[in-house]
Write a structure and sequence with these properties.
By secondary structure, the chain is mainly α. It has 13 helices and no strands.
Length: 298
């Protein structure tokens, strides 16, 4: 190759590199511009409302700093509502975990070519409006509802479940169960089958394989599922209003009532108390699910 040919070759390579860098730069700009609408949405509907909650929660009617809106959680009514919400949330989360983990294992062992079909089956009930699903359970559980009508037809004793904590737990489990199944299933499908087969080849039985291989590797999905069920269960007020009636008041109902009455400062202060539990849940999930395996359900 002559000197002139070498110069032409180097010039051609430099042009290709410049065009490649320019293409990468333009793609980077396109990605940034495409994320701009979400940035506006996040500022308008996430950051600004959070700032307003913090502002109203730490001020009074005269816009003076105060912690009275937070300390009002110590009031017996608010304290009992918070403790009951914590109790029902923990119970519903445990029930969801007991139901979801075996279901996720069964779905993982099914020999279907497309995993999207399984995900579709799980999220299909969620296509119906959340409020309509809860009202449907109200019609099923009420004293003259579908359940008691069937029991009367079979000459069995009727059940008085409506307006009880059991009805609220049932509504929570039904509405939030997919949020437990999907993270666990998402982690299980990523476990290498060769690791499980290697454990069995080395003499581990089914229980030992589950306890020492499957369970530790699926822990990120379990933690993510617990968080995704516990947080909405703790903050819900729709389920407790419809299935619990006016007899059972959770902390979500107290906050909703305060905002409805125009007491933004008190409602915001109680909301800040719940944000402590949410931040704690986020800290737990970031510790045990560092790669985001459990939360990446889609």
């Amino acid at each position: 190759m002559t000197v002139t040919e070498k110069d032409d070759h180097n010039l051609k390579q430099n042009k290709e590199k410049k065009s490649e860098h320019g293409l990468q730069f333009s793609r980077g700009n396109q990605v940034k511009w495409l994320s701009f609408p979400y940035l506006i949405w996040m500022i308008g509907f996430i950051l600004i409302p959070l700032i307003m909650i913090v502002y109203y929660g730490l001020t009074n009617g005269e816009n003076s700093f105060t912690t009275a809106n937070i300390s009002i959680i110590a009031d017996p009514i608010n304290r009992d509502a918070l403790l009951l919400a914590l109790e029902l949330s923990i119970v519903s989360t445990i029930i969801c975990l007991i139901l979801a983990y075996p279901l996720a294992i069964i779905l993982n062992n099914t020999k279907l070519k497309s995993n999207s079909f399984i995900v579709l089956i799980i999220i299909l009930p969620m296509w119906m409006n959340f409020l309509l699903r809860t009202i449907a359970w109200q019609n099923i559980l009420e004293r003259t509802g579908v359940l008691n009508t069937i029991l009367e037809f079979l000459h069995l004793p009727t059940l008085n479940i409506i307006n009880t904590p059991a009805a609220i737990v049932l509504g929570m489990v039904y509405n939030f169960l997919p949020f437990m199944v999907l993270p666990i299933y998402n982690v299980l499908i990523k476990i290498d089958k060769d690791v499980v087969n290697a454990a069995r080849d080395l003499g581990a039985n089914t229980g030992q394989t589950f306890r020492k291989i499957i369970l530790p590797l699926s822990l990120p999905g379990v933690v993510s599922g617990i968080t995704m069920v516990f947080v909405p269960s703790l903050t819900t007020f729709v389920i407790s209003t419809i299935l619990g009636g006016s007899k059972i008041v959770l902390i979500g109902n107290v906050i909703e009532q305060q905002f409805r009455l125009g007491n933004w400062n008190t409602g915001s202060g109680l909301s800040l108390v719940l944000m402590v539990f949410i931040l704690f849940s986020m800290a737990v999930i970031s510790k045990y699910d560092k790669e985001g395996e459990g939360s990446n359900v889609w």
